[in-house]
Amino acid sequence: MSNVTNRNTLVFPALGGLYARLDTVAETLLRVVCGLALVTHGFPKIMNPFGAVGMVEGLGFYPGVVWSPLLAATEFFGGLLLAVGFLTRPAAVAATIVLLVTVWFHWVTQGQGYSGAEKSILWTAITLFFAIRGGNAHSVDARIGRSL
Fold first, then answer.
1. Is 136 helix (H, G, I), strand (E, B) or coil?
2. pTM for the whole thing?
3. CA 31 to CA 134: how far, in whole Å?
4. d(CA 92, CA 106)
5. Which of 28, 53, 78, 141 has the most CB atoms at less than 10 Å from its CB?
6. Are residues 79 and 38 in contact, defined by beta-carbon separation less than 8 angstroms?
7. What's the rounded Cα separation, in Å, for the pair 15 and 49?
8. pLDDT (tens digit, 9 = 90+) per residue, 1-25?
9. DSSP character for 51?
10. Positive or negative CA dihedral for 39, 41, 42, 45?
């Protein structure tokens, strides 16, 4: 679906065709990069699913032996799901929740304010976008004709 609706509203109307051809590609690239970043961040946690018990309990999530593996699975497997665009919305909702906790952690718990939470805020905005939008034409969801 093209977001370029009227060439007359563009600063450079000659680029309208390029924008129309690349908008789905750019959205797909953003989803894949987001998913792979989550996989990369979650990989050490999935290798040691109970390694974050102290951290999650320090944030108030008890019992840590439950929350630590859930965090690992959400980041690693949720990232894989986002990257391929399968169950895109549920995976993105789960990632958004995790990222909102990281915003709270950096901004409030660590007292770092906006500068400490900035990266988490940006990633939260990206995952929220896919929670609302879902996968696009270049997703497994679209290939199987399903979208939650």
1. coil
2. 0.90
3. 10
4. 21
5. 78
6. yes
7. 48
8. 445 456 678 888 888 889 889 999 9
9. T
10. positive
> What does the angle CA 110 – CA 96 – CA 40 come to, to the nearest 5 degrees?
80
What contacts 18, CB < 8 A, 6 or more positions away? none
Q: Rounded CA gap, 117 and 18, in Å?
A: 35
3-state helix, strand, coil in the chain (%, to 5): 75, 0, 25
For 102-112, how does the pLDDT look when each residue is reduced to its tens digit (9 = 90+)? 999 999 999 99
Non-local (6+) Cβ contacts of 130 within 8 A are: 31, 34, 82, 88, 89, 92
The amino acid occupying position 131 is A
Q: For the chain, how many residues are written?
A: 148
Instruction: Please tell me the number of Cα atoms within 13 Å of 79 on its side-chain side.
Output: 21
Nearest to 47, CA basis, from 31, 68, 32: 68
